[in-house]
Design goal:
Two copies of one chain form a homodimer. Chain A is α/β, with parallel strands linked by helices and about 325 residues long. Chain A folds into three domains: about 5-45, Orthogonal Bundle (434 Repressor (Amino-terminal Domain)); about 65-160 and about 285-315, 3-Layer(aba) Sandwich (Rossmann fold), CATH 3.40.50.2300; about 160-285, Rossmann fold (3-Layer(aba) Sandwich), CATH 3.40.50.2300. In chain A, about 45% of the residues lie in helices and about 20% in strands. In chain A, the strands form two sheets. The first copy, chain A, has a six-stranded parallel sheet with strand order 2-1-3-4-5-11, with helices on both faces. Chain A has a six-stranded mixed sheet with strand order 7-6-8-9-10-12, with helices on both faces. In chain A, helix 1 (about 5-15) crosses helix 3. The longest helix of chain A has 17 residues, at about 185-200. The interface of A and B includes residues 71, 98, 101, 109 and 216 of A. Chains A, B: Keywords: DNA-binding, Transcription, Transcription regulation. Chains A, B: It holds the Pfam family Peripla_BP_3. Chains A, B: This is LacI family DNA-binding transcriptional regulator.
Chain lengths: ~325, ~325
Amino acid sequence: MTRPTIRSVAARAGVSKSLVSLVLQGSPRVSPERRAAVLAAVAELGYRPDPTARSLARGSTRAVGLLLDDLRNPWFVDVLDGLRPVLHAAGLRPVLAEARSEPEAPRTFADLRVDGLVVVGTLPDLGLVREVAAGVPTVLAGTRLAPGDPFAVDVVAGDDEAGVRLAVEHLLTLGHRRLAHVAGTGPVGDLRRGAVEDAASAGGAEVVVQTGPMTEDTGHRAGRALLTRPDPPTAVVAANDAVAVGVLAAAADLGLAVPGALSVVGYDDTSTAGLRAVSLTSVDNAAHEVGRLAARRLLDRLADPDAPADLRLVAPRLVVRATTAAPVP
Amino acid sequence: MTRPTIRSVAARAGVSKSLVSLVLQGSPRVSPERRAAVLAAVAELGYRPDPTARSLARGSTRAVGLLLDDLRNPWFVDVLDGLRPVLHAAGLRPVLAEARSEPEAPRTFADLRVDGLVVVGTLPDLGLVREVAAGVPTVLAGTRLAPGDPFAVDVVAGDDEAGVRLAVEHLLTLGHRRLAHVAGTGPVGDLRRGAVEDAASAGGAEVVVQTGPMTEDTGHRAGRALLTRPDPPTAVVAANDAVAVGVLAAAADLGLAVPGALSVVGYDDTSTAGLRAVSLTSVDNAAHEVGRLAARRLLDRLADPDAPADLRLVAPRLVVRATTAAPVP
């Protein structure tokens, strides 16, 4: 099967190609009967306008704004690596901004007349994104809306409940029963914390929680606090890899061997986790696939602006490295 | 002293503010005498048009394209942190692209009608930047042109000869005489290699060199090769921190204690060097200051498009951490 073209739509509807174009542009210069015939042919053939051709026709920029929350977290670059080839193949050109240092970036992108916007990661404030999304097709990638948020927007994200379950069940299988979780803030932090608590209690394990921004410093501080308790945990699930690296540093400060005396699991499986000197067990939440599907979702949205908003979750997997083992009895 | 304004120029020249504006816009509707009077006042007062006001007047975007070679290297984000506040203060808005994955990005920025372009790091190919620079004010940051390159462009970079000297002299002072250098490719790689060889020979030390792209893998491979020689080096100067982390991993593979049996120095002092688990001695080549000065240079260039191209080098400093010590005799 070849992709239906404007020519095949015209043949099916018994009209000219230029009349099909007029209908697709919403021109008022078409009779209701001929409009109905064209739209019926579009539906029967499953025709979708090519976004590149369409944006060229409108004289648009073919640029897509990619708003990344934090350029210091390599996870965002992994998402970008998934987004980029799909956009390139559609003739679209990514331009980037870092959300936490450029809070006005959604407006900048709108002013530069980008064709679309992908917001990657959890922003402190979605207010401006909501405004811009009214005029610019927008997809959220690698984040979740808070429960009950009325923002009707496409979302592609890793399935964090499933990912956290993989991490906790790995530790339970190794024999750990005293767990700790260093939790992040925001919707993703909340989601991961809830999933850790559910999975631990389902396995009959206790879990103590410390919370903070998802940074190495948080991990270091929380790690020291947890590991100097009278009854310290034998394993820590960190909200992300940066936090996990901080926990590892706290263990080293206290002379605790990893994984002999303490197991640590990160989240995101960033390039830091793979560094030989770190070799962190971590949950690969499919950043590349999240990026790829977010780009595809944006192309679909450009082709069909009126489709209902869509939530797509991508399955994660656990990457076991050198920081997890059975607890010493 | 307050900054001269268009009002003070008008007063000095004995003309109206709007006539000064006409002269600055190159309007032909001004007599040669009055033009000369205005330009004399501009020179006497050292007046510079405010680039923001000027770009608003031309109906431009106030966006500045920042082309970063490699988003996985945190050094680029450090440069960005230096650039950003200066651009913001001038009412300019950064948009980013990664050069190695978006070779067409200079053209994208030009098509989006950015007011200026800053190229950060060493690009594999400056061809398109040269073309775009003919129409868009451009500054290179954190890189150098090859010797004799005729490209007349502003450059702001760390003083790599001085930085390498700091690293090598630190090792010589500790007593090392058998050095190795894992060198990078391109003008910056060449410059650093030449400087290592000069500083080593000035100190009566020998140096063996391995070359490759500036990645952890290169460091790991070169490290294994160097450390399994019959007469292995007691210290390695790496082309950058990523390479140094690879060398550390090779030492760990071979059971060589750092810094007991091997000293390692990185370059760039990225956030990786500061991770507690790495704690790498490294040369801070003032990424933040390079960014700050590159942004200032761009503002100057916007204000004075005809000034001659400028090369500015920023002094580096050595950050001694846990990977360097005296060699075991």
